[in-house]
Amino acid sequence: SRGELVELERNPDYFVPGRPYLDGLRYPIIGERGTRLAALQAGRLDVAMPLEMTKTMADTIKGNAPSLVVAETGQIGSDNVIMNHKKPPFDNVTVRRAISLAMDRQAFVQGVRHGGARVGTSVMPRPFGAWGLLDKEVRTLPGYRGPAPDKAEAKRLLAAAGYGPGKPLRVELTTRAFAIYIDLASFVADQLRLVGVEATVKQIETSAFFPALARRDYLIGANLTAAAVDDPDAYFYENYKCGTSRNYTDYCSEQTDKLIDQQSQELDRDKRMKLVWEIQRRLESDVARPMLGWRNEYFTQWPYVRNLVPHHSLYNYGRMQDVWLDR
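Structure (tokenized):
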């Protein structure tokens, strides 16, 4: 019935002769995370969908069903905080900086993603990414140095902006009503509480969440962002260029725009790398979109599934033309 299953049949006129191998594909719609995991473990599913298989979930299911194959990859996906730069108080860079300083990135990676992510800035960090700032520099940036100095500075900046115990900053924290988003939003709200910001989490269904971001109908949000390829153009033009539709924060800097165009046109890889690093530093300084971490994917499937190759992008994993079942 409607809302329970998507079923596809093999196209006999497929453009690659002799493909696909499979007679069809079935995508059961299972709304609850634990039920999805149980269905995979019990063999009712052949493969897990990307995005939501955390390290802890993968370790658990592997322990319960040792023959499952788990491949760790990058996901080109970040957990981040979006702030509407055109609405007060987040039109004030001082307040945005305080929010970023409030976030304990290492605690997020360990406590929420259970070690299945890496701290990084606006580009996916190593080892899966090729363009991120080096870790030794990242650790010197505000918001990445450690919780004690960063949270102390966050409180000072909030006080300078007119907020404090007698006048706390109160915000509605928007997120998608999807488990992995809610995990992020709960952490962000708790971190804000530790610096005196009162945040109420507002969950919005998927069909309304992204239209709300597109309309800029939010103040602050907990968001996940992913790219199709690990290339600076994919990150910068979509998320940080003035006026682009998925630049949900409405961050805009003419100087950064020029650097984005310059790096895109640079053919020398080393020179391009330096420009990409400079852009990342600028985005951090401007508090364009605070990053909490870059997720790893734990691509999980039964061993009889052949030729389904894990990718670093959750958008590119699903080419099924060469997949077959060895059973």
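The chain has eleven helices and ten strands. The mean pLDDT is 95.
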